[in-house]
Amino acid sequence: MTYLFRMAALASLTALAACSTPGYRSLNPNCLEAHVQPKYQRDGHQDTTYMVARLAGHSSEDAALLAFFNQAADDLAMRYAAPQVSVWGTFGAWGYRHRINAVLHSLHGGDQAVVAQRRLDLANMIEARNRSEGQASWQTGFLIHALGDSYAHTDPVGHAYGETYGHLFDGHAPDLVGNRPGLYLDYVDALFDALELDTASDREAFSRFKTLIRNAPEGDIAAHRAAITEMRDYYPDTARLECDALAASLSMREVSRFLRDVEAGFGRSGES
Fold it and tell me: Is residue 15 part of a domain?
């Protein structure tokens, strides 16, 4: 019976995926022709990652790759996004559902101490890969997504939302930078430190960006989005990616295996 449920779920996944259009085709400037503009900016993951990576000293191509793979966790929705996987994963794919929700999207339900440890662990994992990799990888992009969500996917008292319902009852509010700019600044500080290349980073420009965020009125979503877009445009060169090929390079099996390894590494920060 479990096998039949799983096959039905996978058949539904294949059909729905064939009918869906990944968001990067119209929303990621690194995937578009030069004369095309994205419908709207995705500031929390995609644009923040690109901008912070550039400020931390990375090339346009590496920053674009990190931003693409970060956003792929939401763009390739039927495979990796929490709402979609939460539905079809209930039909016999509970382990994969758990890894997508609790690890990739940081919907683990932990208290403030657990949240703090999760953020530290993810930042350390990103920093380790940043110092050892010759080129940006999908694994680092997924880790950055998890780090961002470890900040965004927390309730007003600082507890993580759980993997069963996520932030369903709070809508999209937790994901909007302008609603909690102080929390967002904590995130970009952690991301910058993890990605920084000491000889190439621009801390002065990074400080100017944080001033733009502080000067935007709390609750003004458009003002915070504009500040992020302004800083993204600070760098005139923009890498063009073969985004369909990058999306096709991602394997659910490899992603699941990677997330399993990531989860096994939680709580080990500071170990010798």
Answer: no
